[in-house]
Design goal:
The chain is mainly beta and 480 residues long. The protein has helices at residues 149-154, 165-170, 177-183, 277-285, 313-320, 392-395, and strands at residues 29-30, 38-45, 51-58, 63-72, 78-86, 91-98, 104-108, 113-115, 124-125, 132-143, 207-215, 220-225, 227-230, 286-287, 289-297, 302-303, 306-309, 327-329, 332-334, 339-341, 344-347, 351-356, 361-363, 370-371, 379-386, 389-390, 400-404, 412-419, 455-456, 458-466, 469-475, 477-479.
Length: 480
Amino acid sequence: MMSLKKKALALAVAAAAVGVGVTLAQAQTVAQNSLGQVLIYPYMTAKDGWQSFLHVINTSPNTVAAKVRFRAATDSADVLDFVLVLSPYDVWTGVVEQNTNGDYGFRPTDNSCTAPVIGKNVFQAFPVQTSEVYAEVITMGITTSTTGTLAKAAKHDTSGMPANCGVVAAAFQGGGATALVEFNPNGSASSAGGQYVSTGNSALNPLTGKFDLVHVAKGWSGAERATVIAGFGSPTCSVTSACGATGITGPMFSNTNMWQQVYGDWDHPTLAEGTGGLGGINAALNKSALINEWVLNPNLGELSPWIVTFPTKKLTVDAFATYNSTVVSTSGTKLAFGTTVSGTANCIAATASIYNREELTLQGGVSPGAAMPALCYEANVIDFSSGSINSSSVLDSSVAVTFPTSYSTGVLAGWMQLNMPSSTVAYVFNPVWTSLPGWTPTTTASAYSPSAIGRPVVGFNLTARSTPSDTVLYDHAYLP
């Protein structure tokens, strides 16, 4: 019997109502109330018997179109993506797993419509085979229409089945013209769809989600909420002016050509295409340090790997030049995201200060701390070790580094502060992606990078125990 240890989150709710006369355009932020337009799932694995379950909830009375994308932990390669259409108050679920043929992939466990149509319990092998991924769900458009073609087709009947997922999928063919009209009208007040409720911010930030890591054979199961970005895309007009008093029309995202894509080629939207572009999402996620606990307790078989994911690393590097290459900027030769370690470019040379539970400094001491093995992947696992005790046995990850605690007596447990590089992400540059909407050359670094030091980062601690078998996941604490 698996035991599930749930984490209670103390969240400060900071959702301010949008009042009359208030402009709805807003900067991207990490949502403290876990409601928003973008969901980031920092790590999912199907390796060595693990399964990773993904949940997405539409909390609104509106129909929402969203991009679902799985990216390889090693380099953020797109290993599977599709469009998800959620009817009002809908929940969609699925699982990253290994099938009986040994293939890694994703299996929806829900009836909600996707484009192209996948279907409940139909396993999709990753075209690029990898066992460790992270995932992103990005809102593409919202409609309050109940009579539009897609709203009616995606709506579930009393048996729990959508009316016609084939109609939904067809709407995204040929450049997505049908979907464009219903979900993302170009500012037309007479448009049949795309009306945004003007009475509160929650109408524009309807999504929340969580994920579970489960290992049936070992009796391990733990859950964590997705990192949620609010204000990723918003209409830019005020409810008392051009938008009118009853609703807001206009493009949800001004920086993307997501609707003008060839069916089957789902490159858009990316995390770089919301309000403020790449700089907007980088600024929202930028942190100077991560803080969390660790444990290596052989008496209970209790072990703690960390997850540290840089969900915009590929986008930032690609905006400079060919992936994982250097670029010459006006301030000299710089790397987009990190440094070169053992011939690998754009690694994060982090430092760490690690302590036990009784204030004893085990590694690093005060800032800047001890050198951490370089974090060279997009999603990284940090294992802790002390002699023969090592948390690597929990995930057996292919994207892991090991950090020794240098402590071998007593209860092996404490906390660590992982410091990001003391520099900004980007320097002055002319982005390569100038052909995409919203991407224009710039001579100021602030347009594409946060002004604060650090890196855009998300993650969590996974602590597994074998006596008794249980698992808990909990988010890192962060320093700005």
